[in-house]
Amino acid sequence: MMEVIHEISDSLNELVAAVPMAQEVSLLCFFILGFVLFRTEAMKTFLGRKPEKVAPGAVHTTYSVKQLKSMLAEGHYEQVIDTWPLLENFTSEALSAVVTALLVLERADDVGLFMAKAAVNLPHLRASFHETIEAMISPIGQVPQQRIAAALEDVFKQSSDALDSKATLTLLVGFARINDAQHVDEMLKHLSDKGEPASSDTLAAVVQGFLSCKNLDAALSHLQKVLELTGSSAPQELILAAARTAVECAAGEGSADGVSAVHDLLTILESFPCTPVEALTLIMMSAMRQSSCDSVLAQRAEARLRVVQAEEKLSMSTYETLIRANIHGNDCQKCIDLFNEMVEAYPETSEAVLLSLSSACVSPMNHTLAKHIYSWARQRKMGTSLLFSAVVKVLAISQQPQQICMLCEEALADKLELDSGLSGQLVRFASQAGRLDLAYKLLENCPMEGQDEASFLSLLHCCKQEGQVDMAVKLLRWAREVHKKSVIETTLGNALLDVCVAAGKQDAALEIFNQMRYGNSLDAGSYNILLKLYVGQKGLSEEAKSLMQEMANAGFGQTSSAYNAVLSGHVNQGDFAAVWRTVETMERSNINVDAQTLIIIFKGYKIQRNVMDGPNFDRALALLSRHSIKVDEVLIGAILEAGVSLRDFKRLNNVLNMFKRFGWDMPKRCTANTYSALIKAYGSTNQIGKAVQLWEQIRSDKALLPSEQMFAQMIDVLVTSGRLDDALQLFQEMRSMHAGRLHSQGFAVAFAMVIKGFAQQKECERALQCYEEMKELGVQVGIVVLNTLIDACCRVADMNGAAGLFRDMANFDVTADLITYSTMIKGFCVQGDLDRALELFGEMRRKGIKPDAIVFNSLLDGCARKEMPSLCEQVMNDMVQAGIPPSNYSASILIKLYGRIADLDAAFRVLDELPEKYGFCPNPAVYTTLMSSCTWNGRIDLAMELRLRMRKAGQQADEKTYSTLLRGAMRSGSQDYVATLLSEALEQGASCKRRLLDDEVVQSGLQLLMKRKAWTTHGGDTLLTKFWAAGYQVQAPSSGSHEAKGSYNRRRVLQK
Q1: The pLDDT value given to residue 1044
Q2: CA distance 8 to 892
Q3: Rounded distance, CA 174 to CA 861, Å?
Q4: How far apart are CA 540 and CA 181, in angstroms?
Q5: 209: which of 169, 273, 362, 799 lies 20 to 30 Å off by Cα?
Q6: For the purposes of burial, counting CB atoms within 10 Å of the CB of 20, is it exposed (0-12), middle (13-18) or buried (19 or more)?
Q7: Rounded mean pLDDT of 302-318?
Q8: Res. 1 pLDDT band, cuts 50 70 90
């Protein structure tokens, strides 16, 4: 066979070579030859394919559509394709099954050709092509979207002419559903070119397709076209679907595109007359629910809503939606305005609506709306028990016990029937607010049978706070009658015992304790409470030791609570050595050291006004990890307060890192005091970013309303870190949020911090404006504010303003303190008004305020400025008699005085006698001041000798010292001293690795050496080279001499 092929091929080659033929004829010959050869049985055998043998009389097998669908369901996809030619009937279901099999087998490129052939060979199937395309879009099994897109694209390319209108629409929507905007546009253009532009229904279907895959940009683009075609008859459901999808995307993570789409949708709707109310309300709710409320979007949506319903009043449901949307946005005043508008339009508003709106006010910032609703209902005799209960729950969430008490009084006045459960809650709220009278009144007017133990415990706690022992005893008797108990139960008995102990009523406490002993209701807690009575100011008494022994005999053993009571006694006595001995005993006895133990230790130092030192702080902190103590908010606060007071920011930073391991660096929800303590700690360690991060977390929690104290603490941190603009912005937010609380202590602190910020930047005028605003608003003005303002005025030499503020103290019933007098005296002394300074000094002493070193030194400086040595000596005597020893600062002032009056002997006597007499070592500032006095009096020689004495005393000359000596030496024209000082400063600066002279002084010294023709004598070139090497920016002295030029050239060589 191969030989035959070779012979034919050679013959053809000869023929082609001999007779020139066209390329087409040659290709035709080869095609015919190949067709003949490959059809022969010999060639088939050669290629390895066995010829099919058909048995005589055999009949081809056929399959039903049901069998085909079964193959597809079982996953036999190849068999589905092979079976297609053998089907009994060619139906749309069969066609869809084969297309699905092609998709699963990754043969998407064959789908279009297959459907084109089906359209030619099986024309009856063309009417069902839309079903086939639908099956392609949602195939059986997991088919990647890319493959579906490829199949749809193949159908569009290969068989678009075979598609009827229904199939074309399905294909168009299919492209939209798989988010293929490019082919959607191509198909729309194709239809338009054919003179069959897409109808509004077609475009609406495209919009739905894009909405299903969340392609909002494409969906809104085509929605706008739909609205342009339909006008006033726009499909409301389509608009609503677009609104739902956009709002859903805006609410999800990574919602920037969704938020933008909501804005774009509203922009589209604003241009068309017919807009569904529900779509607009959805947009409003979305605006309010965003992390930072989009008030602009909400206002636009509301405005559009009112336009849509302009011809008639808003429906009740629309009002409800508007109010709910603004509740989510925490715009309480807007909610109240809308509610007033609603009830004016619908005076017969039902209780159900009032209940629904009241219950929605779960945010702390909206409790005012709930109260307003109840007030409106009460005026119309609609203040029912149900509505009252709903509003109380809102106020409870907002932690407003005082407001609840006000409502309770109204409810009692209206004789509302309160069930036992609600009345029990109200009793507890009254207790929290310290309203024992109201709680007692509630007990008298409400069903006693429903009062649970918790209500009585709350009241007893309130009695403890107010020291109402008699009331507590009466309440306990009442509780026993209600619950029909003949003996005092443990829980209530311990609560009453705690009231008596807290009030220091020993007889009453012992009576209760003995009654509990008689009723066999004592527990370890009972002993621990009574133990507090015996560990007061006198420490651990004999009674306490006896009681602890009785406790052990009763089988309760010695507990942590008992030892904590002992610790409290030692703390009250100020015996911290005993505190640590007790802790050691607890550890040896395997008594659990708990959180309360640490709280007592950390707070104990504050109680005794002793700041904890570093080793004790570390020792207490070590207990935390050694005993695996569970950290709670109270302990966090105690540790942070001690850490901040310690002023050891490295230790405090370590504490914050430890809290991070416990998850307490950024707590999700805690009390205002804990948040404030953390913010203060971050500010103290200069971690402003962490403080800001924590504040942003607090503000993002809509269920948490930052208190005025929290705002004030954050403002303090920002001001202290120099971020005054941020502090002012936060202050405005505070004023907006707590407009009704301007008279609180938090606002007084916040104003003080803002004034401090202005004072730090020497913006005295703005500080005084803030002060005037405080007075106008009635904000409490305290000593801190006035002292800060006085200091600000003194800093800018405005002593008239400072004096005016000093007089204002009487108007605010504020007493001037040591800081006030010290600041004023220093200000007058600096301004040279010594008479006023001395007048204030006498006044403060008459008022019993003991002057400190700052006051005496300020007066001393004032006298020195006036060159009054006798008066200076009198101030010194007063200072010593007041028990305040003179210091280096005092010595410097006296030396400066004697230098001014040219009495160098007296100046040297100060250095010789004052330090030795009062036990301090002269510092470089004292020596430098005396050196300056010597140089100004023409005694550079004494100044140079003094530098040797200073060195012998172990004091190193600093920048000020060398600058003073050099300038004095240059004034005296002493080139020898200048050269010596320049060399010494260079040598000492090299050893301590810092520059001790500025460039200007060095340049002047070098110039003097050149001018006095001492450049070569004192090694000017060497000095200059050393200064360059040390990094000084100086030039070779300019004298026009050869020496100078040579130096300049050498500098250029060095620089190269």
Answers
A1: 42
A2: 125
A3: 91
A4: 84
A5: 273
A6: exposed
A7: 71
A8: very low
3-state secondary structure of 143: coil
The answer on pLDDT for 1001 being more than 80 is yes
- Pick 57 or 405 by higher pLDDT: 405
> Which of the residue ranges 18-22, 389-393, 929-933 has the most confident prediction, judged by mean pLDDT?
929-933
Q: How many helices (H) and strands (E) does the chain have?
A: 58, 0
> Quick one: which of 863, 798, 875, 854 has its CA closest to 829?
863
473-521 pLDDT, tens digit per residue, is 666 666 665 555 555 677 777 777 777 777 777 777 787 788 787 778 8
939-987 pLDDT per residue, tens: 999 999 998 999 998 888 889 998 999 999 898 888 899 999 999 888 8
Q: Which of 226, 209, 269, 217 is nearest to 246 (CA)?
A: 217
Give 757-794 as a 3 state SS string. HHHHCCCHHHHHHHHHHHHHHCCCCCHHHHHHHHHHHH
- Burial of residue 361, with CB atoms counted within 10 A of its CB: 0-12 exposed, 13-18 middle, 19 or more buried: buried
Residues 643, 656: Cα–Cα separation, whole Å: 10
pLDDT band for 34, please (50, 70, 90 cuts). low
What does the alpha-carbon distance between residue 651 and residue 643 come to, in Å, rounded to a whole number? 7
What are the distances in angstroms from CA 479 to CA 288, 426, 493, 502, 508? 48, 17, 11, 21, 18
In angstroms, the CA 509 to CA 495 distance is 11
In this prediction, residues 273-302 reach a mean pLDDT of: 67
The CA distances from residue 916 to 381, 853, 946, in Å, are: 87, 19, 17
Share of the chain above pLDDT 70, in %: 80
Token pair 């607009």: residue: 280
Q: Which two tokens stand for residue 555?
A: 């089988």
Q: How far is residue 745's CA from residue 712's CA, in Å, rounded to a whole number?
A: 9
Rounded to 5 degrees, φ, ψ at 63 are: -125, 155
Structure tokens at 205: 């279907």
Start-to-end C-alpha separation, the chain? 91
Q: Provide the CA 894 distance to its chain's centre, in angstroms.
A: 53
Alpha carbon distance 791, 796 (integer Å)? 9
- Joined together, the tokens standing for residue 199 give 């109808």
pTM, 2 dp: 0.52
SS (H, E, C) 838-854: HHHHHHHHHCCCCCCHH
Average pLDDT, the chain: 78
- H or E element that contains 835: helix 834-846
- Averaged pLDDT, 386-410: 80
- Quickly count: other Cβ atoms within 10 Å of residue 777's Cβ: 12
Spatial neighbors of 481 by CB under 8 A, at least 6 apart, are none
B/e letters for 737-754, b = 16+ CB within 10 Å, e = fewer, are: bbeeebebebbbbbbbbb
Q: 87 pairs with which residues across the strands?
A: 63
3-class DSSP state for residue 63? strand
Question: Over 50: is that where the pLDDT of 1053 sits?
Answer: no
The answer to whether the CB of 568 falls within 8 A of the CB of 528 is: no
Q: Are the beta carbons of 683 and 652 closer than 8 angstroms?
A: no
Residue 317, amino acid: S
pLDDT of res. 945:
92
DSSP helix, strand, coil percent of the chain (3-state; round to 5): 75, 0, 25
User: Quick check: 607 pLDDT over 70?
Assistant: no
Residue 746 reports pLDDT greater than 90: no
Half-sphere exposure of residue 202: CA atoms within 13 angstroms, side-chain side? 19
Burial bucket for residue 312 (CB in 10 Å: 0-12, 13-18, 19+): exposed
Torsion of CA 356, 358, 362, 363, to 10 degrees: 130
Is residue 1033 classed as helix, strand or coil in its secondary structure?
A: coil
pLDDT at position 714:
92
